Structures are given as structure tokens and as C-alpha cells.
Amino acid sequence: MPLTGRIFVESIIAEKKAEPSINPWLVTIPLITAAFLFALNETIANVALPYIAGTISISRNESTWIVTSYLVASSIIIPAIGYFCKVLGRKKYFIFSIILFTVASLLCGLSRSMPMIIISRFLQGVGGGAILPLVQAIMMEIFPQKEWGKAMSLYGFAFVIAPIIGPVIGGWLTENWSWPWIFLINAPVGLICAISLTKLIKDPPYAEKQKDAKMDFFAFGMLVIWILLLQIVLDKGNDAGWFDASWVCWLMSISSTAGILFFYSQFKNKKDPLLNLKLLKDLNFLFGTLIQMVLLFVLIASAMLLPSMLQGLLGYSAFLGGVSMLPRGLGSLAGLVVLVLATDKVPEKISCLAGLLLIGLGGFLFGLLNMQISLANVFLPNFLYGMGMVMSMTPVINLSCATLKKEDLTMGSSMQNLMKNLGASFGTSIATTCISRFSQVHQNMMVGYLNDLNPVFSERVHNAAINMAQYVDFETANYMALKQMHFSLLEQSTLWAFIDTFRIFALASFIIIPLLILMKEQIKKA
After folding, report:
1. How far apart are CA 232 and CA 251, in angstroms?
2. How far apart are the first and last CA of the chain?
3. Burial class (CB in 10 A: 0-12, 13-18, 19+), 71
4. Which CATH number is 18-215+274-441+494-518's, of 3.40.50.2300, 1.10.132.60, 3.40.640.10, 1.20.1250.20?
5. Confidence grade of residue 357 (pLDDT, cut at 50, 70, 90)
6. Quick one: angle between helices 131-142 and 379-401, nearest 10?
7. Measured between alpha carbons, how far is 301 from 296 in angstroms, rounded to an integer?
8. Cα–Cα distance between 121 and 72 in angstroms, integer?
9. Cα separations (Å) of 83 from 54, 87, 137, 216, 280?
10. Rounded to the nearest 5 degrees, what angle is found at the Cα of 358, between the Cα atoms of 328 and 308?
11. Which of 36, 170, 276, 488 is most buried, by CB atoms within 10 Å?
12. Is the pLDDT of residue 493 over 50?
């Protein structure tokens, strides 16, 4: 619909007011720091889960809620960001989110029971969930479009490298201080970010407080029920035998119904939808969002699985398990350098394609690991993972948001971060299930060879029994030899489960390449 002269003049004035009066690179420092804190806490607790479980007397499986509660909460709050920005004003809501994240981090460090730490992590996710989309939207506003590449390279680097070095920091703090410090370190940094941003940012006219703010509370309720119950099913369904358990069937039915009602309400609500699903008509935005979902699934799930494999199978400490992720940080630095040098020289689709191929190659290299590996053996695949993540994530963010109108950036970035967080939380649960299922499959395949008809098996059991017979009677020694073979069976089946899962990560990165090809390189001018 064409604009009248008055509206056109007002829009020009609004654009002028929205232009930054402070050097945008100065504003970027606390913005990127806040985004870094949120992303860091997605993985910083991974290597500390056994220690936390011991402190609060819960099982290892139950301790995974410490990770998933944070991811789920950060997903749930994202659709309501637009409403809270209108009610409080974007700046005030942004500062409030950082303060809530900081306070919840303190509560996490003080927790000494499962309910308290789960609730604290949930509140931390609620506060942190708004940080990434608002940082992305603010940075796209304060920088001219010609500098989006450099700005988003820095944003993408912080977003990718934080989950990578999270296990390193978490492992060091856990072993040298204690696990509460992995949460307590957020307090001073979060406080500094909140104070500095109160002075450095201001709301453009379209992001100020509005009196007529509305939200579809029914849709929001359905969204919460859908995501929360589905996450519970994905987390606990495998232990309960999936649909063999009646409670899984009930929760899945309620979750599916809530999901259907949510999407139906969004299609019916054309005035104030919780999520503007019309943005998905933009194929760049749709395909870019799907690619980012898969990338976050691979990034977060692999960051959880690799330290777990090294700690569980090879006996690494929490710190060494975290150190195994350092090559990803080096790869991320290399990827950032390549992106900066390639800006305005290499098409963003080519950069993203190269990143996806590097991730796929790294996944297949992880599929070559065995029980005799050292940290040096995981250097190259991890390096490729880190470099590929930065080279693919940053360009796809630019491509997916470049065709959106400026007033749609907040909603668009909110929708993208919702889907990315869902990809991370659901992907983490799915990857954990894959380890359990694939381990059973390989165990079933290999156990057929462990019988007296197999001469290799018989010889190994006999030799092991002879060695042990020096210390115990032969009957006990033979029993101990059989137990040793059983332990080797479990060890090898678990190793192959990790290998198969890493190969799935590689295939996932290749499968989304056609979506990248279908995205348009041309950028519409704002």
C-alpha cells in the first residue's frame, strides 16, 4: 500500500533517529559480551555434570536436565520477546533480561538440590533467551548494511566459539575451584554489561514502549505446553521404552494437540500473532533458519558428546575433556580470519558451502576414532568443526535476514533464535538417544561372536584366565576373564555408537546444502 506524504516524512525522521550517535563498534563490545555469556552457558556445565550430580545426589541421566532446562527456557521465552519489548521498551527489556540472567546464575551457584538448580537454570534460560535475538537486531540497526558482513562475522564468531570453549572453562573451574564457579563467574560480567548498555544504547521510535501492546496468551500457553512436554518425552522417553509407557503416550498426545492449536491460532490471528509466520514466505529466511537449526544441533550436541566420550571411555578428567574442545576455538579463529579476508571478495553462499563441507569432513574423521586415540587425534576433526561453523553460520545469518524489512528484524531474529534453540535442545536429547540405541544395536551385533565356537574368543578367554589364575583359583579366573570380555563388548559397542552419531552429524551438514543453493545471493536494499 503506498505511503501518504505525512507517513513518508515520519518514516524518514524515524530512520534518522535510529542512526547511532555513538561509534557502533564501541556499542558492540557489551553486546557481544552479553551474547557470549548466553552461548557459553549452553555448554559450560557439560563436563561438570558428574560433579553436580554427586553434590545434589542425583543420577547422571537426571543431571542432563541441568542442560536441557536452560535450552528449553531460552526457547520458550523467544516468542514473547516482541510483546515485552512493546510493554517495557526494547532497551529496558534487554537490560532486565541481562539482570535476570545474572541473578539466576548466582542462584545456580548457590543451589544444593535438584529442584533449586533446575528452577535456577530455567530462570537463567528465560533471561538469556532474549539476549541473542535482541543483540542481533540491535547490531543490524546500528551498522549500515554495507558493514553487516563484518559485524555479523564478529557476532557469529562469539556465538560459535562460546559453546566451544565452554567445556574448557567449565572443566578448569570444576577441577581447580568447584562447580558452582561455572555459574558464579557470570555475575560480575553480566553486571558490567547491564550498566554499560544503559549508557550506550537507545531505542529507535519503533522499539519504544507502546501503550497498545497485545499478546496472544492462548498461543503462548500452547507453545509452552508443546515444547515443554515434547522435551520431556525426548529426554525420558528412551528410558521408559518410548510408547510402551502410557505416560509417554499421554504427554505426546497433549504436546501434539498443543502444537496443532498453536499453529492454528497463529494462522487465524492476523493482527497480533505471537510469531509472524508470514516471514516464512521469504525463502531466504525459511531456508536460512532451517540451516541454522541443523548447525546448532551439530554444534551443541557434538560439544556435549565428545567430552562425554573421552571422560566415559578413556578416563579423561573434566579439564582434559574440556581441553579436547580447544581445537574448535582455533578453527573458529581461522574461520573468522578467512571470512574477514573474503568479505566483498567471495560470495556468501560459497563461504557457507565451504563451511558445511568442512563440518561434514570433520564428522567423518570423528568416525575413524578408536580406543587408542590421544588428544592429538581429535585435533584435526575438531579444528575443521570450528572453522566450518564460523564459515557457515555467519554468512547464512546475513543471507537469511538481508531480505527482511528493518521493522521485521526483531521478529525475524526472534523466530530464528527460537528455532535454533529448539534445534539445540531437541538435538541434544536425540543425540543422547542415538548413543543409547546404537550401543544396543552394536552390542547385539557383536555378542553373537562371543561364544566357544569362535576360536579367537576362546583363545582370548583362555589366555586371560591363565594370567589371572596366578592370583585366584582357575574357576574364578575364568569367570573374571569372561567379565573382562563383556566389559570390552560394552566398551566397543559404546564407541561405535559415538562413531555412528558423529557420522550422522556429517550427513546432516551435507543434506542441508541444497537449501543453501536455493537461497538468493542478491540483497534487497533497505
Report:
1. 8
2. 17
3. buried
4. 1.20.1250.20
5. very high
6. 60
7. 8
8. 10
9. 40, 6, 15, 9, 20
10. 40
11. 170
12. yes
Question: What residue spans define the domains of the chain?
Answer: 18-215+274-441+494-518, 216-273, 442-493
Rounded CA-CA distance 416/152 in Å is 15
What is d(CA 158, CA 139) in angstroms, rounded to the nearest whole number? Answer: 13
Written as nine digits, the cell of 518 is 536455493
Question: What gap in Å lies between CA 498 and CA 479, rounded to an integer?
Answer: 29
Structure confidence by residue, pLDDT tens digits, 462-478: 888 888 888 888 888 88
SS3 content of the chain, % helix, strand, coil (to 5): 80, 0, 20
User: Residues 369, 499: contact at Cβ < 8 Å?
Assistant: yes
Q: From CA 260, how far away is CA 256, in angstroms rounded?
A: 6
Q: Are 126 and 108 in contact (CB under 8 A)?
A: no
CA distance 324 to 169: 12
Question: Can you tell me the distance from the alpha carbon of 336 to that of 79, in angstroms, rounded to the nearest whole number?
Answer: 30
**What is the Rg, in whole angstroms, of the alpha carbon atoms belonging to the chain?**
25
Distance CA 369, CA 378 (A): 8
* Tally of residues, the chain: 526
pLDDT band at 15 (very low <50, low <70, confident <90, very high): very low
Distance CA 386, CA 330 (A): 7
In this predicted structure, the answer to whether residue 2 has a pLDDT above a threshold of 70 is no
> What is the structure's pLDDT at 499?
92
Burial 470-484 (b: 16+ CB within 10 A, else e): eeeeeeebbebbeee
